[in-house]
Amino acid sequence: MKKGLVLLVLWMVFAQSAKGQITAGEYFWDTDPGVGQGTALSGSDLLTGQADESYDIEVDVPLSPGLHRVYVRFMESDSSWSPVESHEILIGPENHLATSGSGIDSAQVRQLVYYWDTLRTSLFTIDINSPSASFESQMALSLGPQSGGLHTLNLAVKDKYGLYSSFEQFLIFVSPENHLAGVSSQKDSMEVRQLQYFWNQDSLNVQTVALPSSDSGFRFTYQLALNLAAEGYNQWHYRVSDKRGMYSSWSSQSILVIGAVPQIDSVKYALKPTQYGYVTPENLLSVDFTTNSPIEFELITDSTHIQAENEIGTDSLSHGFNVFTLQVNTKQPVVSSISDSRNSAYYQAIIKVDSTIKLETGEPRNIAGDLSNIFCPGELIKIPVDTTGNWPDSSEYGIATHFLVKLKDASGSGFTEILSQMNNTGDTLIVTIPGGTSTGTGYQVIVESTFPLLRDTVTSTFQVGAILVLSDQQAPSGSSVDLTASAVTVGSSLPSGTTFSYFSDSSATIPVSNPTSILESGTYYIKATSSAGCEVIESVKVIICGGVFDPITAPINSGIVSNGSDQKITATNIISGSGTKVTYNSGLSVQLNPGFKADSGTVFQAEIGGCN
User: Fold this and answer.
1) Do 25 and 93 sit in the same domain of this protein?
2) Which structural domain range is residue 494 located in?
3) How far apart are CA 428 and CA 365, in angstroms?
4) Which of 67, 249, 402, 465 is deepest in the core (most CB within 10 A)?
5) Which residues of 598-610 are buried (b: 16+ CB within 10 A; e: fewer)?
């Protein structure tokens, strides 16, 4: 009995024509019997191509095995016949066996034969002892050419019945290194050094350019000049040469060249509720701009791109589907599939609004879960998050919902995304205050979800870093100052658990032995350190009044000299030492007489006030 073959025919000629419909067709094997004399295609065969003119056709096989060619042609409603389309087919003996249920086995490849260039008499053969069930085999071929350059490889296969396929040709580039004995790697020969190209049919105007160095994957980047290309679609033809001047074959690809990008003047948009359900294109175009006042926002443009970013709130929209309409106003005509306007284009989309979806955030807490309004740079904090409503299923839309946290700086200039991660229960964001964040108040965080885009700002503001405020201290002669007293740090804003340490130098390396009883006037330094990592150092001035011998004649190289409120200071001394800072503090006057001198590099300061 005869077996049938199913052919897939993509009819390109008729796909380009709008003259009429295909009403008939016929096929024949090997020899053309004449138009209308072939085997007629059935009505079911013709129905398979009504949608896209790609036909599934069942044909009877020829009477003998071997290579045969099947021909197909079609007739349109005006009785005109198309050109003939043909395909070469290898028919195995199983196609003629009544007991055979499948002809696939006959296609098993058992041998590969090949030759190089035109040397068909110099055939190479490779036996395939274990054919692959998927008809795929991998093998090494003998390098027949005796010279480098472009060569043609001709391949054919033979099945288990000795039937050969037709020869297929492949263009192979053979480099000189392939002929060098002992070469461990031939990749270097493939380095691309030069590019030649021309546009469209202008093959007489070939451009030659040197190429930049390639990376380890033999890839390179080259900025292609478009001055010789026309606006619209162009065919770009190119080939490359290696370091020995050997060229590849010519290749080509289609490139769309656009003209100047239209300069955007403004953008207007409108949002309008519609009925829940499918919205036809006619209804989309019926969106009325007069009932929705257009809102303009500025776009950023350059010579090659049009970029814009603007948020449109949906608070005024009703639950369900809404139409979003965008109009772009330009100085040049814009091609648009919806509008033929010479100065505008329309973009319209359906926006689904679900008013049940809500995002609410709680007040920030420290990592222990306690409410706090002071945090340190680098500290982990917690932001409670509550999500309610019909949030979209990521498996349905293929988009996962992520939560972002943004920090507004103390100046209120904007929000910057910071590192955050949702906890396992999905109700708390663990947020890191960035290291190096400036100390200040008025910081605030905002939480955003990416799908859908929702935003909620945490109501309260907070402080980042420790703010240490110190008050200068005075004491009468013979008494002391307690730097650990709360009055010294009044006005400070410090994290809980802050501890203090006391020093006599600004770098905090020389501790004060007894900070509770300071007996000498001078500048001291207090360092505040919190368990969360905040650290700050500030200075405090201590004045012990009285005890000054007048006049001052001995050299001084540090400290504060102070007396009572009803006394004066007379000085004839020298202040020496690079970096020395000396202050004379008197309640009545400071008189500098001949002989007083402050050496270069010292800082001298006179104050009137004493211990008042």
Assistant:
1) yes
2) 473-544
3) 10
4) 465
5) beeebebebeeeb
